[in-house]
Amino acid sequence: MAEFTFYTVAMSRGQIARWALHEAGADYEHMVFDWATRPENFKKINPMNKVPTLVHHHGDHDHVVTEAAAICHYLAETHPKAGLLPDEHEKAAYFRWLFFAAGPLEQAVIAKAMDWKVPEERTGMAGFGSLDLTLGACEDWLSENDFAAGNRFTMADVYFGSQFIWGLRFGSIEERPAFKAYVARITSRPAYSQANAVDAKLIEEAAAKA
Fold it and tell me: pTM of the entire structure?
């Protein structure tokens, strides 16, 4: 048995977790299904019945990790030799942008996609304020720093960066020079190409069966 079992749907946020698995060099096997054919026992593993979900077979125990950002950091912690954790001077930015992406940024992008209107006087209650405000904060940082934690790639970039990869691809995030340059940097990594190739093949196979 592999050390990790990875539950995913090919065209989903599971792509973020797969990239993290490849960056970490994790020993994993995947369980791939589609939304209509999720196995009956999956809801026992993740009561939310969603992917990605990672199960770490650790000695006599199985540890379940859900939420893509948590999976990313968990893999960095369990694979310290991969060099994806922040050093003491990078920690503040690492956690800042990892949680910013999982909170305000993703919420703002979804709010736009769902056409949710936040009254101007209630933007503080929304947490993300507005999409323009969140993107402005990211643009300011990426205009002066190559990566989420500063001048080198860390696991925070897998999650933070995925928001821009997907956002620019599907038009949910407007193209700005700092975002395009950032996406070019992170997608040139071998682990990204390897993970992306696996999911691209799965998506192609699923389309052929449809």
Answer: 0.96
